[in-house]
């Protein structure tokens, strides 16, 4: 009896699968026939059909990641065991996060998209760059959360953060890659983020100290301190030192950078740029020389314009910092942070000015303006 039921179950699955395939074919033929008919009629109908096709083409070009996800749904309907469907779905989700990561710190990402290659070994997860494009080779798993979690973690660890590995403390590197992977997965699907924490992040944290550090770095990421500031600082070291001859004291200083940001994150003092000296937070080490300014509420701007905030910037420059970070969160403060940063775009003391966007599902959008000062060693 059990055998008969099993065969009936399989038969129902096959019938449903082929019925779905038939429906997809019929819908496709109906759409193609409609457009062909409109083109054949010509006149306004032909123009309308051509306009719709043109709009679709432009949409596909501009939203290729979303289109990949939609195509994966269709492939999954066509064949529920399709590995190509899983590949397209994950590539679409991950590539969308890569583009958001480039908005936060473009130097971290060598390319705008990855390519997934399935291997025969289930536990394999390896990322590398080939012909300028990141490739992730991984064993296919029936659990979609497992595939997405391993691919994201491998990409972050072996591609995004690979260049800074030799310059920062090992615990900082491990916890940062875990926290960044979790943050990016949360943006895709919070369920996948929780799955990553339970199956990869927590088993990797070997002490209470590392677990506390991991949670703090997760919070740094959510508050736009990790990618636009800390990882930008770590990445700058790769331009001055070779990986094989990086001085040991750099690793200790990387700890100090994270500690500096953690203190600011949990400080009871408001990080308001009101009077320059009082509102500018500075870290000066042998290599890292950072100033962080958080723009004040719009009422302060209404009273004094950009002058109080510029006083904070001038104080930082006089104190010999390499990089100044101007942080703003929320619609009004992000506008003010952009305005303050861009007001220094023609300043001859400034080597480079950038405005970086940061978006997170749990918090309002943030902006971090980055000003790199000339001739600071």
What can you tell me about this protein's structure?
It is a single chain. This protein has 13 helices and 8 strands. The protein is of the alpha/beta class and 377 residues long. It has a 5-stranded mixed beta sheet with strand order 4-5-6-8-7, with helices on both faces. Strands 1-3-2 form a 3-stranded mixed beta sheet. A hairpin with a 2-residue loop joins strand 7 and strand 8. The longest helix has 40 residues. The N and C termini lie far apart (80 Å). The N terminus is likely disordered.
Question: Brief description of this entry?
Answer:
The chain is α/β, with parallel strands linked by helices and about 375 residues long. The chain has helices spanning about 1-40, 45-60, 65-80, 85-105, 145-160, 170-190, 190-205, 210-220, 225-235, 250-265, 300-305, 305-320, 330-340; strands at about 115-120, 125-130, 135-140, 280-285, 290-295, 325-330, 350-360, 365-375. The strands form 2 sheets. A 5-stranded mixed beta sheet has the order 4-5-6-8-7, sandwiched between helices.
